[in-house]
Amino acid sequence: MTERLDSAEALARHLAGLLERDARLAAVAERAGPFDIRQTEPGFAGLAKIICGQQLSVASARAIWGRFEALPGALEPQSYLRLTEAEVRAAGFSAGKYRTVRATAEAIASGEIDLGAIAAIPALDAVKTLVQIKGIGPWTAEIYLMFCAGHPDIFPAGDLALQKAVGQALGLDERPDIRELIAIAQAWAPYRATAALLFWRYYAVIRDKEGIAP
Fold it and tell me: Was domain 8-38+154-209 assigned CATH 3.40.190.10?
């Protein structure tokens, strides 16, 4: 597997490789400007943080996570399982998010899931492993693999911003759907995570400068 995407140096190498594979992306990179990998903590705590932030504004997610991580034992799977639903929901978690994090903690504590090993296997296999946990869908699995595990070849094709960015950048008549975007992104393997970071940055730039709706 391509080296982990876990440093600025690795990102520079992956971006160079990506631009060699698809010359169209040179203009995208020029418009996007510099970007970074925005890594977060791997393991149970990192996955719980991603679950916490789903479908929330950055400010709301930050506030809820601050209350959650202050709970004694919240960041370790075995001790999380000793917390009550009332304690976790008082921090701001929904019932669904509480159950998903609990299912994650149970899978790790039982040895069913090894988050360390997942980082070293091919992208498709890694996603399939994570979505076995009840409540975790492909997007959550892909975001964890990118930002916590440093997996180099993940492209979250279900992400609306990526669909809009790729459609705009490549001059497509319509925004690509998930299946179409997966097919498009095949050309960017094994650097698809870098492509995703590039297009997220590109989308932020054009949205701010051209007034595109989020």
Answer: no
